[in-house]
C-alpha cells in the first residue's frame, strides 16, 4: 500500500542520506533552506520509503533531493512521487518546475516531459544538468 503525504523537514534526512549520499556525513544532506520547503514522504506499507522537497520562488517551483530507498527502487515508486508533486504544482498554479538532475537520472525525468537546459555542473562527485518543465 502506498501513501504520499506532507512531512516535517527532518524526516527527509535519513532517506536522503541512505539513498543519495551514504558516503558523506549525515549533516551534509540538510539544506540551509529546508525549513522554507514543502516536503513529501512516500510510505510503503506504513514505512517511509521515499522523499522529495519542493521550494518556490513565486510561481516557479524547484524540487530537490528526490530519493527512493535503494531496496525499493525500480518498482514505480519514484514515478508515483513525481506524479504527486506535478499535481501539487498544478494545484498551486505553478508555471514551471525545475531541478538539478543527476545525469544518470535524466532519462527518468524525460518520462515526465522535462527537458534539459544548457546549465550543467559538477558537485559532490556527480555531474548535474538543470532540467525543467513548463506547467
Ligand atoms: C531516480 C529515482 C528517484 C527513481 O525512482 P524509482 O522508484 O527507482 O523509479 P521508478 O521505478 O518509478 O521508475 C519509473 C521509470 O523510470 C525508469 N528509471 C528509474 N530510474 C532511472 C534512471 N536512473 N535512469 C533511467 N531510467 C530510470 C524506470 O526504469 C521506469 O521506467 P519504465 O516505466 O519504462 O519501466 C531513484 O532511483 C533514486 O532515488 N535514485 C537515487 C537518487 C537519485 O538519483 N535521485 C535523483 C537525483 S536527480
Estimate nothing, just give the exact number of structural domains: 1
**Alpha carbon gap, first and last residue:** 29 Å
CATH superfamily: Gcn5-related N-acetyltransferase (GNAT)
Question: What is the CATH class designation?
Answer: Alpha Beta
Short précis:
With 135 residues, the chain is an alpha+beta fold. It has three helices and seven strands. Residues 19-20, 66-68, 73-79, 101-102, 104-105, 107-108, 111 line the site of coenzyme A.
Model description:
The protein is α+β, with helices and mostly antiparallel strands and 135 residues long. It has one domain: Aminopeptidase, CATH 3.40.630.30. It is built from three helices and seven strands, in the order E-H-E-E-E-H-E-H-E-E. The protein has helices spanning 11-20, 77-91, 106-110, and strands at 2-7, 38-44, 47-57, 60-68, 96-102, 115-123, 126-134. A seven-stranded mixed β-sheet has the order 1-2-3-4-5-7-6. Helix 2 links the parallel strand 4 (60-68) and strand 5 (96-102). The structure holds coenzyme A. Coenzyme A binds next to helix 1, strand 4, helix 2, strand 5 and helix 3.
Give the tags.
single chain; 135 residues; Aminopeptidase; 7-stranded mixed beta sheet; 43% strand; binds coenzyme A; acyltransferase activity, transferring groups other than amino-acyl groups; Acetyltransferase (GNAT) domain-containing protein; transferase; Acyl_CoA_acyltransferase; GNAT_dom
Amino acid at each position: 500500500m502506498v501513501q504520499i503525504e506532507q512531512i516535517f523537514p527532518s524526516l527527509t534526512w535519513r532517506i536522503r542520506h541512505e539513498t543519495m549520499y551514504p558516503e558523506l556525513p549525515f549533516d551534509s544532506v540538510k539544506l540551509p533552506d529546508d525549513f522554507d520547503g514543502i516536503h513529501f514522504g512516500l510510505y510503503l506499507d506504513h514505512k517511509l520509503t521515499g522523499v522529495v522537497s519542493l521550494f518556490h520562488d513565486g510561481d516557479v517551483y524547484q524540487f530537490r533531493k528526490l530519493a527512493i530507498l535503494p531496496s525499493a527502487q525500480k518498482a514505480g515508486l519514484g514515478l508515483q512521487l513525481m506524479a504527486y508533486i506535478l499535481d501539487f504544482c498544478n494545484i498551486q498554479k505553478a508555471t514551471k518546475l525545475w531541478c538539478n538532475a543527476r545525469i544518470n537520472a535524466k532519462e527518468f525525468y524525460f518520462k515526465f516531459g522535462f527537458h534539459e537546459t544548457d546549465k550543467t555542473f559538477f558537485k559532490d562527485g556527480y555531474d548535474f544538468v538543470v532540467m525543467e518543465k513548463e506547467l
